[in-house]
């Protein structure tokens, strides 16, 4: 059995500790950190062979690096992907995956419920390059079909969505995309690679902000793009080498350390999020709670089919609009106000004035982002302390 086959036979928690490890001649226990821009060749002929692709060695850290490659291979083992490229941030991953897939005159169909920066890339960055984009209700399969044109090359969605935690039927959307001759790119950051497997559901490309759960401890930025080797060779490889969105080796090393504890953290965060969602749902000061693990979630049937867990995040609407939402957030002592998510520390943000502030009031209303909506990312603190903190904040509203 090959090393790759042995790794695939392991369960996810074991892969996150061992997969992709390369050791130097010193036999180090922890993954080595290679802080180098370039690499030495024994001969001019060896350099020529490496640049021609006849030798798999490293050339330049903008292209690839031993530490960065270990992170990529560990993510491949977790995701079930043939290849990957690590990027400097989650938005670098999204931008590279989209830009390398289309050219002027092409058309993209995307779910309208997206992180604000993703919409900027689709509507502004790609728009300036002559790529048209149609935004649809991601949960409406007929809307995806109706948006397809002869120029459609790409579908894009995130699921669960930011911040209202809508869940899109990935398998059904992938089928529509492939029938149209298009590829599907899925941003899987809210589900984590432990709770949803887009490639197994038919997606062609998966992207992550590794800044979130994968680091999960507030230390560094990072992103990753995962797909088939053929797609990366044909679409991403040259784009990546020449535009330079690569991840630094130090951040790759930090993310490798984060992956070792990812299953433990996500399990604890998910349990805390579920308890907080149930607690908030019982409050007369909260008008609605959105959590993928609850039976009252609008997309509960899709969640049961494609997700193996709930989520580390929940959204809820405080009665009284922005003023009440701000009073709630300001009264919290354990939960910190931050637009980040997936951290070991519990975090809360007011999407209408932070992550989605650049959307028009009409667009926010269409997405269900009201002035009283808050997004809470559950951490790994003691659940009883988090519930006490939320109770204090509810009293302040």
Tell me what the structure shows:
With 397 residues, the chain is an alpha/beta fold. It folds into two domains: 3-258, Type I PLP-dependent aspartate aminotransferase-like (Major domain) (Aspartate Aminotransferase, domain 2, 3-Layer(aba) Sandwich); 262-396, Alpha-Beta Complex (Aspartate Aminotransferase, domain 1), CATH 3.90.1150. Helix content is 43%, strand content 15%. The chain contains 16 helices and twelve strands. The strands form two sheets. A seven-stranded mixed beta sheet has the order 1-7-6-5-4-2-3, sandwiched between helices. It has a five-stranded mixed beta sheet with strand order 8-9-12-11-10. Helix 2 runs antiparallel to helix 4 (66-79) and helix 12 (249-281) packs across helix 16 (383-396). It is globular, with a radius of gyration of 21 Å. The mean pLDDT is 95.
Précis, in short:
This protein has 397 residues and is an alpha/beta fold. The chain has helices at 3-9, 12-18, 44-51, 66-79, 90-99, 116-128, 141-147, 170-179, 192-195, 211-215, 229-243, 249-281, 300-306, 321-331, 361-367, 383-396; strands spanning 83-87, 107-111, 132-136, 152-158, 183-187, 205-209, 223-227, 286-290, 313-318, 336-337, 347-349, 373-377.
Give a quick set of tags describing it.
globular; 397 residues; alpha/beta; Aspartate Aminotransferase, domain 2; 2 domains; 7-stranded mixed β-sheet; Aspartate Aminotransferase, domain 1
Quick one: overall form? Answer: globular
- Tally of separate domains: 2
The biggest beta sheet reads: 7 strands, mixed
Could you list the spans in which at least 5 consecutive residues all have pLDDT below 50? none
Please identify the top-level CATH class of the largest domain: Alpha Beta
Assign the CATH superfamily of the largest domain: Type I PLP-dependent aspartate aminotransferase-like (Major domain)
Strand order of the largest sheet: 1-7-6-5-4-2-3
Rg over CA atoms, rounded to whole Å, is 21 Å
Cα-to-Cα separation, first versus last residue: 61 Å
Number of helices: 16
Mean pLDDT rating: 95
CATH topology of the largest domain: Aspartate Aminotransferase, domain 2
- Bin the strand percentage: 5-15%
Structural class: alpha/beta
Q: How many strand elements?
A: 12
User: Into which percent range does the helicity of residues fall?
Assistant: 40-55%
CATH architecture of the largest domain: 3-Layer(aba) Sandwich
Helix and strand string, N-terminal first?
HHHHEHEHEHEHEHEHEHHEHEHEEHEH
């Amino acid at each position: 059995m090959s090393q790759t086959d042995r790794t695939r036979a392991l369960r996810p928690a074991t892969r996150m500790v061992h997969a992709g490890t390369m050791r130097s001649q010193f036999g180090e226990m922890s993954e080595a950190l290679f802080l180098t821009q370039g690499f030495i060749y024994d001969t001019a002929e060896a350099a020529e062979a490496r640049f021609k692709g006849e030798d798999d060695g490293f050339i330049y850290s903008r292209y690839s690096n031993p530490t960065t490659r270990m992170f990529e291979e560990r993510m491949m083992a977790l995701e079930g992907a043939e290849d990957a490229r690590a990027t400097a941030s989650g938005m670098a991953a999204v931008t590279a995956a989209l830009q390398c897939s289309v050219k002027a005159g092409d058309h993209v169909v995307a779910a309208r419920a997206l992180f604000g920066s993703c919409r900027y890339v689709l509507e502004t960055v790609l728009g300036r390059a002559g790529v048209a984009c149609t935004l649809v209700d991601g949960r409406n399969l007929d809307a995806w079909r109706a948006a397809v044109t002869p120029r459609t090359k790409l579908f894009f969605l995130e699921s669960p969505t930011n911040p209202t935690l809508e869940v899109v039927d990935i398998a059904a959307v992938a089928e529509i995309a492939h029938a149209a001759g298009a590829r599907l790119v899925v941003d899987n950051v809210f589900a984590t690679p432990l709770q949803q497997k887009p490639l197994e559901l038919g997606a062609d490309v998966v992207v992550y902000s590794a800044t979130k759960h994968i680091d999960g401890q507030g230390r560094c930025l990072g992103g990753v793009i995962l797909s088939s080797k053929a797609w990366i060779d044909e679409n991403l490889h040259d784009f990546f080498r020449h535009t330079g969105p690569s991840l630094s080796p130090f951040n790759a090393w930090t993310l490798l350390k984060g992956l070792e504890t990812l299953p433990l953290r996500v399990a604890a965060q998910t349990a805390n999020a579920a308890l907080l969602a149930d607690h908030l749902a019982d409050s007369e000061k909260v008008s609605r709670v959105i959590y993928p693990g609850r039976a009252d979630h609008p997309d509960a049937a899709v969640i049961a089919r494609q997700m193996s867990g709930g989520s580390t995040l929940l959204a809820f609407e405080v009665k009284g609009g922005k003023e009440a939402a701000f009073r709630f957030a300001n009264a919290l002592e354990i939960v910190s106000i931050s637009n980040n998510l997936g951290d070991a520390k519990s975090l809360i943000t007011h999407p209408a004035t932070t992550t989605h502030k650049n959307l028009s009031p009409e667009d926010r209303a269409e997405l269900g982002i009201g002035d009283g909506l808050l997004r809470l990312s559950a951490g790994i603190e003691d659940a009883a302390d988090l519930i006490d903190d939320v109770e204090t904040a509810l009293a302040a509203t």
